[in-house]
Amino acid sequence: MERGTQEPGSASSGRVRKRAKTYQAHRERQRRKILDAAAKQFDESGIDRVTMAEITTASGVQPSTMYQYFSSKDDIVWAIVGELMQEQTENATEAIKDAPHSLARIGALLEMMASDLSEHPDKVRFMAQFDAMYARDWPVERLLSLESQMHPDPFRFFSELIREGIADGSLRTDLDPDLTMHAVINAVIGAQRRLASLDSKVEKEYGKRVDELLRESIRVLLLGLCNPQVAPEVEIEKSRNRKRSL
Question: Is the pTM higher than 0.90?
Answer without folding.
Answer: no
